[in-house]
Design goal:
Layout: E1 4-10, H1 15-26, E2 30-37, H2 43-50, E3 55-57, H3 66-80, E4 84-87, H4 96-102, E5 106-110, H5 122-128, E6 133-140, E7 150-157, H6 164-187, E8 191-194, E9 197-200, E10 203-204, E11 210-212
Parallel strand pairs: 1-2, 1-4, 2-3, 4-5, 7-11
Antiparallel strand pairs: 5-6, 6-7, 8-9, 9-10
Bound molecules: 5-O-phosphono-beta-D-ribofuranosylamine.
Residues 12-16, 88-89, 109-111, 136, 172, 175 line the site of 5-O-phosphono-beta-D-ribofuranosylamine (GRF).
Length: 214
């Protein structure tokens, strides 16, 4: 089976991008055809260039409104003709026009065990709430923020010594394991979005997606 074309959107360091690049080196189903950043100084652009992946920068500050920025991104992304669009630390709110254009082939990683802690500051909020565990979720993107169907989740216990920094670090390590896995499942067509839910190898996943045990 030929590889699927994947476009990855970033705004910063791109450590999740790096994890997917690394996976693509041994998984022929993942063909990263472009990396797009809204910031010219995003370190992830260097990671892509080092891996000989085409890059583009579309600076959101040069656009007067969200829709014209999203339209410029859509023109660039569509020129790469992707089967899958991966948000990997992309820090802009997307318009409904953008989301509906890519719906069903647009995924994100969120640093919480969704549906808990949608939005920002998830690690601090999990600590403050006295949660016994925290983690991350790869999910399809829909118009409602962080509310699309989960594909895979990974959790880590919260211990007394944990701080925001230690939790960020622990969750990041899990992100680097589950994001490439989710991308691989989609690109190899093991994961399918069906009318009755999301199925992996023809088995329906539960409402939180696959539970990853590291
Ligand atoms: C990750 O923590 C991810 O959960 C969030 O943005 C961060 C991106 O980090 N959506 P990196 O750029 O992949 O290192």
């Amino acid at each position: 089976m030929p590889g699927k074309s994947v476009v990855i959107l970033i705004s910063g360091s791109g450590s999740n991008l790096q994890a997917i690049i690394d996976a693509s080196k041994t998984d022929a189903s993942i063909n990263i055809v472009g990396v797009l950043s809204n910031r010219a100084d995003a370190y992830g652009l260097q990671r892509a260039t080092d891996a000989q992946i085409p890059t583009a920068v579309i600076d959101h500050t040069l656009y007067s409104d969200r829709l014209s920025f999203d339209q410029a991104m859509m023109a660039q992304i569509d020129a790469w003709n992707p089967d899958l669009v991966v948000l990997a630390g992309f820090m802009r709110i997307l318009t409904s026009e953008f989301v509906s254009h890519y719906e069903g082939r647009l995924i994100n990683i969120h640093p919480s065990l969704l549906p808990k802690f949608k939005g920002t500051q998830t690690h601090a909020r999990a600590l403050e709430a006295g949660e016994s565990e925290h983690g991350c979720t790869v999910h399809y993107v829909t118009e409602e923020l962080d509310a699309g169907a989960p594909i895979i989740q990974a959790a880590t216990p919260i211990v007394a010594a944990d701080t925001v920094e230690s939790l960020i670090d622990k969750v990041h390590k899990l992100e680097h394991q589950i994001y490439p896995l989710a991308v691989s499942w989609i690109c190899s067509e093991r994961l399918k979005s069906r009318d009755d839910g999301i199925a992996l190898d023809d088995e329906l996943l539960g409402p939180s997606g696959f539970r990853f045990i590291g």
